[in-house]
Design brief:
Helix content: over 70%
Radius of gyration: 27 Å
Largest sheet: none
Shape: rod-shaped
CATH architecture: Up-down Bundle
Mean pLDDT: 79
Structural class: mainly alpha
């Protein structure tokens, strides 16, 4: 009888260890899968941001050509836009693309302000159509940036809360960077043109 009790206690002890092990494996497994899912969502959101940036980059040569035909002497801004566009297409680093996108937005704002000083240009159907496409693209960029930041927030939260923070550290899931506006982005650019 004592032998049966010892066997029973041993079986119960093994059963408890097995149940606890299965629970821990389930927690690690679930946390890992959630982190992968959140990471994939961040990557997809970033791809959406890049797609909209690429759409904007693709619109620019047409816009530049239309503006250039009216404002031939505004070469500095037009050259800057072209150079930024070229660098955008050759880099793959997300941080560099964000930096170039911010530079591009500033130069693009100047281009639009330059166009305001040319009434014939503002009345051009080509310019109006391109400006409308650009405005639509800018709105889409704003939406996808917001979605990207939401995906980053979910992912970063998952990497910091218990117990998934332990799993994140074990498997190399590190905090992602939010998309932030450049300093001074709240102020409209000033362009002085003397005709």
């Amino acid at each position: 009888m004592a032998k049966e009790r010892a066997m029973s206690k041993k079986t119960i002890g093994i059963g408890i260890v097995v149940v606890i092990s299965l629970i821990l494996i389930g927690i690690v497994w679930g946390s890992y899968n959630n982190l992968v899912r959140f990471n994939q969502n961040v990557d997809k959101s970033w791809a959406d941001v890049q797609a909209q940036y690429q759409r904007r980059i693709d619109l620019i040569p047409n816009l530049v050509n239309v503006v250039q035909s009216y404002a031939g002497f505004e070469r500095i801004t037009l050259t800057q836009i072209t150079e930024i566009r070229s660098r955008w297409q050759t880099t793959q680093l997300p941080e560099e693309r964000v930096r170039l996108a911010n530079q591009f937005e500033s130069a693009l704002s100047k281009l639009i302000l330059i166009a305001e000083n040319y009434p014939d240009l503002k009345a051009s159907q080509n310019f109006i159509a391109l400006q409308d496409s650009l405005a639509e693209t800018e709105n889409m960029i704003s939406v996808v940036r917001t979605r990207y930041n939401g995906a980053v927030r979910e992912y970063n939260t998952a990497t910091k809360i218990f117990p998934s923070n332990i799993v994140a550290n074990m498997f190399g899931f590190y905090e992602k960077t939010y998309f932030e506006a450049i300093p001074g982005a709240e102020a409209a650019p000033r362009v002085n043109i003397t005709v």
